[in-house]
Amino acid sequence: MQPHQLNPAIEPQFDAVTDYILNHLGSNVPLVEKIGHYIVSGGGKRLRPLLVLLSANACGYQGEQHIPLAAVIEFIHTATLLHDDVVDNSDLRRGNATANAKWGNAPSVLVGDFLHSRSFQLMVDIGRLEIMQVISNATTIIAEGEVMQLLNQRNPDTTEDAYMQVILGKTAMLFEAATEVGAILADAPPAEQEALRLYGRHLGIAFQIVDDLMDYLSDSETMGKNVGDDLAEGKATLPLIHAMRVGSEEERKLIRHAIREGGLDDLQPVLAIVQSTGAIDYTRDKARGELDKAIQALDALPSSSFRDTLITLAERALERTS
Question: What SS3 state is found at 96?
């Protein structure tokens, strides 16, 4: 079951967002529209726009502007995917060839810029300055998170705190913005806006931790990306950070070498170390802790089916790791 199918009341709104996205990909340049449609139609759960819809509804919103607002969030997310795949030199996304693998790096970057710009056009049409402030702040922090990740690449001395700072920026900030702007649009009381902001932040952190964990658990068919991509790119994610912290000197040296060199030559022994040092359970527990915080934040919201769906989304976030 897809996330939007958890609540029948949200499905028509979710379908309206999909239609809105596809109807606003138009461009006078055919390649822009072609790449835009390719990446937007390439699968994915569209969790971030769903969070906008659920948050607005959970705060009693009765209007229609949550549809374009959800599209804004998805356009920003899609732009970051196009840019990320170029930076990471990825060739697989959601089980499909990446845009940069099909059309090259330059078109992918430029179409990412187009989608980013289109998102701000739509925000102007919505006309809520507070929403623009939240989203513009989030996009700035997302860019900083990506740069921090780049600086940490192939750095085996990356600390857990530094890792958490990166994922807060590059992933959690858009989750946080999605839930917060839904509440702002609904003119929710400050306590409810803050509750949904915190929910989005902790859910986003957990989401990225789970994604990083999956790199050491799954396969390309399940993940939609190549196994060991993070290791190949020299990313010191939480499973490796913990394994280096508690492993033997020999194990620590092997992982440090693997991070510095990148590639997949050491993938199998690294996988074995991650398993033997308890890094899988440690990382899963960290994600679970963030999800608990997300669910707890929702105590400030009135009871509704939409609040229940937000709770269910958090509860389901660890399913892929079991």
Answer: strand
Q: Is the dihedral of CA 211, 212, 216, 219 positive or negative?
A: positive
What does pTM read for this prediction? Answer: 0.93
Beta-carbon contacts of 242 under 8 Å, excluding residues fewer than 6 positions away, are 160, 277, 278, 279, 282, 283
- Half-sphere CA count of 176, side-chain side, radius 13 A: 22
Both tokens assigned to 211: 């994604």
Q: What is the pLDDT of residues 281-310, one digit of tens each?
A: 999 999 999 999 999 999 999 999 999 999
* DSSP 3-state of 225: coil
Phi, psi of 69 (to 5 degrees): -65, -40
Model confidence band, residue 2 (pLDDT cutoffs 50, 70, 90): confident
The token pair at 172 is: 């959690």
Residue type for position 94 = R
CATH number of the domain that 237 lies in? 1.10.600.10
Q: Does some domain include residue 3? A: no
Question: Using an 8 Å Cβ cutoff, are 214 and 223 in contact?
Answer: yes
Phi-psi category of residue 127: left, alpha or beta, with phi > 0 → left and psi -120 to 50 → alpha: left
d(CA 232, CA 140): 27
Residues 47-65 have pLDDT tens digits of 999 999 999 999 999 999 9
Range of the domain at 222: 9-313
Q: Is residue 321 part of a domain?
A: no
In a domain, 320, yes or no: no
Phi, psi of 96 (to 5 degrees): -120, 160
